[in-house]
Amino acid sequence: MITNETDYAIRIIRALEDGQIHPVKSVCEEENIPLKFAYKILRKLRDADIVKNTSGVHGGTRLTGDLNKLTLLDLMNVLENRHDLRKCLTPGYQCDWVEKKHCLCQVHEGLMVVQDKIDTELRKITINDLLHGSPGL
Predict the structure, then answer these.
(1) Does the reported pTM lie above 0.70?
(2) Residue 75 and residue 5 in contact, taking contact as beta carbons nearer than 8 Å
(3) In the chain, where are the structural domains located?
């Protein structure tokens, strides 16, 4: 599931797609994003070198990442860290059922296969594809 944070990040990127510096407030108004939430997302996007923020009177933010190389999976990982189907797929998770039964969980194994397939598909879709309906879709 794509979270609101990833959805808003895609909208922010769409607003910045022209490569120009845009005031954050105007991006939020254009894309209907709460300002406080936008700053949190922009911080993560900046740390991942997807956007650059500029201070001052003519400041704002602009896109610096290559939308043909940035995949949907990459963006989700920047914002959400993990996007697993179930928490049992998170590395280091301690499953009570496995500990109690002392055996392999077939549900977990099956979900790992599904998660791998989802990740493979998300890796094929670039943000440019998503914004313009290009090849990966």
Answers:
(1) yes
(2) no
(3) 84-126
